[in-house]
Amino acid sequence: MERGGNMNRRLTFLILIMFFVGALGFSADNDGHDVTLTVSEIFEVVLNPATTNFSMSISSATPGVQPTNATDNTDYDLHYTSVIDAGTHKITVGGSGDFAPDGTTLYVSATTRDGGSGLATLGTGQSRVVIATDSAFTGGDIVTGIVSGYSGTATTEGALLTYEFEVTTFADLVVDAGKTITVTYTMVDV
């Protein structure tokens, strides 16, 4: 019996050795983990130069005709970055504060230019968007159809803004010491 008992012990011992050797054979010499990568929808816009306020004045006329409208396009640019999920982004413009002086309207136009994105243009600029009249803030879309890309940051990139301060109803025009309109640009998902 002892011989059978030894045999069982040997068999058990061999099975245990095979188990441990097998376990060692299957143990890894490396390890790993999952890395989850995400890209979020991005819509960022900045006005350049950011802190430059300016004034526009209707202050001259040729005798016998309506006063000359004021135009300012002295390198005010919108620079923007867009990453879309689906559809497009757009930039809207709006006004707040004082309305325009009686008989006048403030407009803005955007001309999109080649940018850092490698695209010919990033979006389509709109012309003569009304920011404010003498009785309301209108606002609207100033750059539309923006896909994933970035406009660049140089003064020759992004959307060049041109402001126009125009007499719209001459009969309502009166001298005005100054109205301040805060113009705000916002990029939104379409």
What does this structure look like?
With 190 residues, the protein is mostly beta strands. The mean pLDDT is 86. The protein has one helix and ten strands. It folds into two domains: 1-28; 42-49 and 67-189, no CATH class. The strands form two sheets. Strands 1, 2, 4, 6, 8 and 9 form a six-stranded antiparallel sheet that branches. Strands 5-7-3-10 form a four-stranded antiparallel sheet, with no helix packed on it.
Q: Tell me what portion of residues adopts beta-strand conformation.
A: 35-45%
**What structural class do you assign from the helix and strand content?**
mainly beta
Instruction: Give the topology string: H per helix, E per strand.
Output: HEEEEEEEEEE
Principal-axes geometry comes out as rod-shaped
Per DSSP, the total helix count is 1
